[in-house]
Amino acid sequence: MLILGLILLLLGIFLKVSILTTIGVIVLVIGAVLFIMGSIGHPVGGRRHYW
């Protein structure tokens, strides 16, 4: 999700499409939260780790 969010964010910035930028930021933040939760050992979706 982090990579997808970053790609959408960059596409939105370069193509000047605000909806892609918004979706990119949202996906990037969700991916970062899931990554951090998985890194500290908190189960995410029933798993002890999240890639």
UniProtKB/TrEMBL annotation:
Keywords for this protein: Membrane, Transmembrane, Transmembrane helix
Residue intervals passing through the bilayer: 25-45
InterPro entries linked: DUF6131
Xref: Pfam families: DUF6131 (PF19626)
Name of the protein in question: Uncharacterized protein
Species, as recorded: Planosporangium thailandense
